[in-house]
C-alpha cells in the first residue's frame, strides 16, 4: 500500500483556517488531558510507527526517488532517507518523551500573602504551536510528541521533499491519538506542498497560532523571523566561541576546544571561533591550532595566529561573524578576558560561549558579562542541547530573549497562570 | 523657570534611530550595574523630583491650560493634573522601587548533571523596553524606575497632553542617573509629540527595542497589539467574572462581589459579569443583585435575573463581552460550574476570574479549567495587581501567553541565561 496524497483543496486559505480552528479546539482538550492519556497516546503512536514501518518506508522511497530525479545533494538525501533503524529510533523517541515528567500542572512557585491568600504559579500549555521544517521526516514524530506531552496542539508544516514520508508518519501519530481517545486534531499535518501555507502560518492563522518553531536551514529561519506576526522560538546562528584564558590549563583547553569544534561540526553548539589570551599565546596558541589542523580542521587566523603556525590561513573580517558548520575555525589572539567579552559581544550570536580558565574571577566575569543564552566555564560548547541539560528532549534552541531561551524542552513549551486560594478576602 | 521644549528634529526617523542606538549601549551598562548604584540613582531621582517640584508643577500647568483650551474631559484633566501631593507620591514611588529586591543575578534554578557540571538559570535584564503611554505624567517616573531597577534601558513615549510635564519629570530622572554615575541614556524620553515616533517604536527601532509596554486607553493598546513587530506586554480587556456556585456562602459571595465590582470600577481587575448557579438562584440571586443596585450599580441581566429583581435591565449579547469600567454589571444564571467555565471561555478576556464556593471540587475544576492569567477561589478579582501579589510594583498586567502573564513586575521585566560550571567536561 502506498500512502495517497490528500487531494489539494483549491482554497488554501480556507484549508489553513480550518486547521487553525480545529487546532484551537483540540488545544482546549489537550490542556486538560491527564498525563496517563497523553502517555497512552505516545505509546500507541510508537506502536503505530512500528506497525506501519513498511508504509512509511514505501512513502519515503517515493520522496527519495523524486529528490534524486531533482538532483538533490547527498546531504539532503541523507537527511531525507529513512531506514528501519531510523524508524525504530523515531518510535523509541516517542517512548522517551512518554517517560519524561509532565510539565502541565506543576507548581513552580507558591507563596502566602499577609492576608492569608495563597498564590501558586502553575504551568499550563502555551496553546497551539506551529512547526515549520525541512526535509527531515523524523521531525514530524519528534515535534508532535513534544507538543502533545506539553499539552499543546501542533500544526506541522513539513518540507516538500519529505511530504509523503511525513504524511505516512503523521497517519501513525493520528492513529495513536485516536487509540488513546485524544482528538486527532491535536497533531495536524498541513496537507499541501503549497508554499502559501507557510505565509498563512506566519500571519498567525487568525490568532489560532501562539508560537512558531522553525526547524531547518538559515533561509527558513531568517524568513520566519522576519515575517512571523507571532512569537518565534529559534536561533538563526550559533556562532559559538571558546576563549582560552591566561590561567587555562593547556591539556584542558585542548580537550574542550577539540570537543567543541570537532565532535560534530554541523551542530549549532559547535565552536566557530577560538580566542586565545595574549599572555599565553606563546605557549598555548600553537599546540591548540596544530591539534585542530592535524585533525583536518581549517584554521583562519589573525596575524598572530598565522605567525604561530604557517598552515593557518588569513581570516577575513567576515570570518568572525560566520557560523561555518564545518571543519573550519576562526582564531584570534585577544588581550585578556575583557577583549574576549568585547569580541563576543560584537561578533557573537547570543547562543553559547565558553571560557577555559583556572582563574575564578575571570570565569565569573565571563559568565556575567557575555550576553548569551548559555555561558560555560571549563566545559564544551557542544553541551548546548536539551538532552545534555537534562530536559530530556528539545524542539530547538532559542536565542531570543522572550519566554524561552536556550534549549526549548517541555517546560519551555508551557506558559503559566496564577491560582489564588482565599477564604473570602476582599481588597481594602 | 519653565522647562523648554527640545527643538524638534526634522528627521524623526534619525532621532528615533539615535535613541534606539543609545538605549542599546546604555542597556549593556545597566545590565551589569551593581544594585547599590541603581539604588543610589533611585534615591537621587526621588530627591531631584522633590527639588524640582516647582518646575514640574509649572510645566504641568502649561499642559493643563492647553488641555482645557482644547476642551479636554474632566477625567482627562484629572489624570493630567499634578499636585504637590501627587509629586510627593511620585518621589515616594521611586523610593518604594528602590526598596524592592534586585531581580538581576538571582538564581531561579540550579542543578547538577551526572557528569558533574552544574547548571544555573539566572535572571538577566530583557534589554531595552519601550513604554508608550497617555496623559498620566507619573508613568514617566514609575516606568523609568521599574526598568532601571530591573537593569533595563527604557524609551518613554509619553502622551501629547502631558508632554511638558513628562519632559520636566524626565529631567529629574536624568539628574538622578547622572548623580549615581549611570548613563542618562538609560532612561530616554522621546523629545517630540510627532506621532510618527510611535510607528517607529512599533517597528522595533532597528532591533534596538526588545519589548513594548502600552499604558493607556483601549485605542492605544489595540494599535500597539496590532502593529508592533516586537513583543508586547499588555491587556486589551479586563472582562473579569465572579461565579457564585451553589455551594457559596451568601455572606461571602456578597462581600466578594461587592468588592470585585464596586471597590474601584475603573480598574482592569473590576468584575464585569456576575454568574450565579441556577441551584441557588432562588436564594442568592436577588440579594446579590439588590446589594449592587442599592450601591448605585446598574445591573443588566438575562431573563432569570430580570425576574429576580424588577430593577434589572435586559442584557444585550454584547454586554457579556463588555468591560464596562463603570458601575454597571452584566448578570446571568448558569447551570453550575461547567456552564460558568464555558461562558467565561466564550466571553472572557483571559485576565482574572473568581469562583465563590465551599465545594473544593468545584473550586479546583474552576481553577484548572478557566484559562485566565489569574484565577481565584473565594477572593476578589480586584487582587489582580502586582502590589497585591507581593511584586511591589507593576508596569502593567499582561494577558498574552508568552513570557509575562498577569502582573508585570521587576522579575517579569527580566529574562534569564544558563550559567554552566564544569571541570573540563566534554560531550561524548
Layout of strands and helices, then pairs:
The structure is a homodimer of 428-residue chains.
Chain A: H1 12-31, H2 35-51, H3 53-69, H4 74-80, H5 84-99, E1 107-112, E2 118-125, E3 128-133, H6 138-149, E4 153-157, H7 163-179, E5 187-189, H8 196-202, E6 211-215, H9 218-227, E7 240-244, H10 250-262, E8 271-277, H11 281-294, E9 298-301, H12 303-308, E10 313-314, E11 328-334, H13 336-347, E12 352-356, H14 360-369, E13 374-379, H15 386-389, E14 396-398, E15 406-408, E16 414-425
Parallel strand pairs in A: 3-4, 3-6, 4-5, 7-8, 7-12, 8-11, 9-10, 9-11, 12-13
Antiparallel strand pairs in A: 1-2, 2-16, 14-15
Helix pairs in contact in A: 2-5, 2-7, 3-7, 5-6, 6-7, 10-11
Amino acid at each position: 500500500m502506498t500512502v495517497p496524497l490528500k487531494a489539494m483543496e483549491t482554497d488554501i486559505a480556507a484549508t489553513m483556517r480550518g486547521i487553525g480552528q480545529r487546532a484551537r479546539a483540540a488545544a482546549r482538550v489537550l490542556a486538560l488531558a491527564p498525563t496517563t492519556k497523553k502517555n497512552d497516546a505516545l505509546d500507541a503512536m510508537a506502536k503505530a510507527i512500528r506497525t506501519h514501518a513498511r508504509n512509511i518506508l514505501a512513502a519515503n522511497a517515493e520522496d527519495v526517488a523524486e529528490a534524486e530525479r531533482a538532483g538533490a545533494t547527498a546531504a539532503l538525501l541523507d537527511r531525507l532517507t529513512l531506514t528501519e533503524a531510523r524508524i525504530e529510533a523515531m518510535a523509541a523517541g516517542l517512548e522517551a518523551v512518554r517517560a519524561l515528567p509532565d510539565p502541565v500542572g506543576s507548581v513552580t512557585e507558591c507563596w502566602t500573602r499577609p492576608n492569608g491568600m495563597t498564590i501558586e504559579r502553575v504551568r499550563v500549555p502555551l496553546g497551539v504551536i506551529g512547526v515549520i521544517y525541512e526535509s527531515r521526516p523524523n521531525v514530524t514524530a519528534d515535534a508532535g510528541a513534544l507538543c502533545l506531552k506539553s499539552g499543546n496542539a501542533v500544526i506541522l508544516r513539513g518540507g516538500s521533499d519529505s511530504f509523503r514520508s511525513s504524511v505516512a508518519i503523521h497517519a501513525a501519530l493520528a492513529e495513536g491519538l485516536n487509540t488513546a481517545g485524544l482528538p486527532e486534531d491535536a497533531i495536524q499535518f498541513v496537507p499541501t506542498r503549497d508554499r502559501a501555507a507557510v505565509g498563512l502560518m506566519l500571519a498567525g492563522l487568525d490568532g489560532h497560532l501562539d508560537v512558531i518553531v522553525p526547524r531547518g536551514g538559515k533561509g527558513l529561519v531568517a524568513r520566519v523571523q522576519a515575517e512571523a506576526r507571532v512569537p518565534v522560538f529559534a536561533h538563526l546562528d550559533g556562532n559559538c566561541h571558546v576563549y582560552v584564558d591566561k590561567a587555562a590549563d593547556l591539556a584542558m583547553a585542548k580537550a574542550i576546544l577539540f570537543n567543541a569544534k570537532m565532535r560534530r561540526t554541523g551542530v549549532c553548539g559547535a565552536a566557530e571561533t577560538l580566542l586565545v589570551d595574549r599572555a599565553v599565546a606563546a605557549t598555548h596558541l600553537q599546540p591548540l591550532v596544530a591539534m585542530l589542523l592535524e585533525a583536518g580542521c581549517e584554521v583562519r587566523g589573525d596575524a598572530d595566529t598565522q605567525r604561530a603556525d604557517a598552515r593557518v590561513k588569513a581570516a577575513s573580517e567576515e570570518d568572525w561573524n560566520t557560523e561555518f558548520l564545518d571543519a573550519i575555525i576562526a582564531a584570534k589572539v585577544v588581550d585578556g578576558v575583557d577583549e574576549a567579552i568585547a569580541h563576543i559581544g560584537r561578533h557573537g550570536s547570543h547562543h553559547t560561549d565558553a571560557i577555559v580558565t583556572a582563574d575564578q574571577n575571570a570565569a565569573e566575569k565571563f559568565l556575567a558579562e557575555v550576553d548569551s543564552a548559555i555561558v560555560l566555564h571549563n566545559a564544551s560548547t557542544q553541551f548546548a542541547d536539551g538532552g545534555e541539560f537534562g530536559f530530556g528532549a528539545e524542539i530547538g534552541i532559542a536565542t531570543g530573549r522572550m519566554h524561552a531561551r536556550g534549549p526549548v524542552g517541555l517546560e519551555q513549551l508551557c506558559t503559566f497562570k496564577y491560582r489564588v486560594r482565599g477564604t473570602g478576602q476582599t481588597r481594602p
